[in-house]
Structure formats: structure tokens, C-alpha cells
Amino acid sequence: ANVARASKEQMTRMLFESAAESAPHNYAHWVSLHDFHNQVGDVEAAHQAIITAASTAVKPADRFVSFSKLGMHFHNQKMWSPSYESFKAAHDISADEGSLIDAHSKIQTDVQAVFLGSYLCEWDFVTSLLSDVIPQLDRMREEHLAPPMHPWVSMCLPMPPPLRLAIARGFWMQQKQHAEQLLAGKYQVRTQAQAIDQWHSEHSNTKDNQLRRIRVGFSSADFKQKATAYLALSVFQHLDRSRLEVFLYASTTDAGGPPSEWRESLRQSADHLREVHDKDPVRASLMAQQDELDIMIDLDGYSNEGIRRGELIALRHAPVTVAWFVYMSTLGNDENDYIVA
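Given the sequence above, the corresponding C-alpha cells read:
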């Protein structure tokens, strides 16, 4: 299967490259080649293809798409300044040729420009753009459309609270649908009523009131040498372990060699430290389900995008779910019961 997949990928690559080389000034061929290289993870080839696409594009709409894709390419490589300049170039094209640019694509590009401009302290540009972007996003909310902005970005921008909630809710619903597709047929978690019934059943014949410990899980991408771990550790160390069985779900490695002192301290502060950073979403979810948690506490919210285990929070993995610590805004998540703020 791997050989067949590699052969198919090689053949597809040859077809795209042949098409681009046979018509070197055809913008569409270079965009298709970029998308292919991006999909298979060939970063350098994707970069060269989209640079060529941007230089060959003539129509305003094509130039807009080229610079938008170039901005996202730089963004994925964490090259913030080139990414900002690319999205800003796309914005300038759409400002001059607005009637020729797809409205949804335009607002998505402007949102990226706002985010990166804020990160790079380009306040004059951000302020001028926000006066247009926020009303557009609010109109989308009124039309019951999901505003295309990441909740983490919305958290630090001035906007009406209903819009902030709509952004978070739209993002959660996308993640929930994705998790449901991944875990189809492999997801079953007790409801609160089922958990209470199980608790009473387990302890109906106990002697000397020896109750099972409450199983509490904490999920985070920051269980390593970071401020979150340092502060959370002081809480974990004071939990009553005679009453609580503590599970930590670490979605990142303790990078840089052997386990750090902090990682080991976290391990000692819990009954179980689950390494889920090397697990696919299905295995990570099944691990949490098999632990039969009573309470799941998420320390990430919508921070740490790309490394946190979103499936553990997008879908309920315990009868009681709690958001705590890093993320300082609404989650828009119907599966979350409490926020510790």
C-alpha cells in the first residue's frame, strides 16, 4: 500500500510539474503545483511554486489569491513579517479591485492581516482595517454565518461580546464536527446521570465508607518547562490524593533531551501521566475514554493551536467538564460545563 501510494504521489507530481513547465506563464498551473506540494509536505517546492504563481498572475483576482496563499505559506513556517506583508498586499489588491474579489475570501485575508499586524505592532494599519472588518464579521453573525476568525485572535480585539461568542461557537462547532468524523463509532462517554448511577452502584455495598476516588483529568500542551506547568504544579501538589485520582494528558513532549525536573515533578504530582502527543486523535480519545474520568479539566482553551488535543475538549470526555487557566475568553462550547475564571 505504501509503494502504491508513493507511486501515485510521484505520478501526480510529474503531471503537475509537466503542466507548469509546458505553460510557464499559466498562473493556474503554478497554484495547483503549490497546493500539491503543500499537501505532501514539500515546503521548499511549495514556496517556489507560489512565488512563481504570484509573479505570473495578471488578473487582480489571481494576484489576490497568490498573495493570500503566499501569506498562509509564510504563516505556516512561522515567518511572521513576510506573512504579514503578503496578506497586506492581498488586502491592497482587494481594496483597489473589491468588486472582482470574492467577499468571503477578502474577509478571511483581512482577518489574517489584522492578526499578524497586531502581533507585529502595526497599529495604524490594524486600527484602520478593524473599522471595516468588525462590522463585516458582525453582519455575518446576524446572518447566522460563522465569522472566519480564530477565537484566540478575537480575544484581544475590541468587538461586541455577541460577536466574540459567535466566533468561538463557530470554531467549536467546526472542531466538534471534525472530531465526530474521526471518532465515528469509537466514541461513547457516560452522561452525568449514568456516572451518578454507576457511583451509587459501585458503593452500595462498601464497608467503612471506602468510596472510590474521583477520577480527574487535566489536559494541556504546557506540561513541560513553561509558566503554566509551574503554576499548575502548585495546585496539583495540594490536591487530596486520598479522594482524587489524578490523570494528566500531555499533548507535547518535554523537548530538548531527557525529562526535565518540571516534567518529573508533574509526573510525581499525579497518579497517571498520559503521553498523548504521539497518539493520533482516535487513540488519544480512546485512552481518555478507557480511564473513565469523572471530571475533565482543560488548561488550553483555544491557545496552543496545532499542538493541543482539541478532540478531548470538542467532544465531552467526562460527565463533568471544566475550562481553567490559559484561555481568557468564552469557548462557545456546549460540552463545557464550568469555567474557572
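The longest strand covers residues 214-220. Try to locate this feature in the C-alpha cell string yourself.
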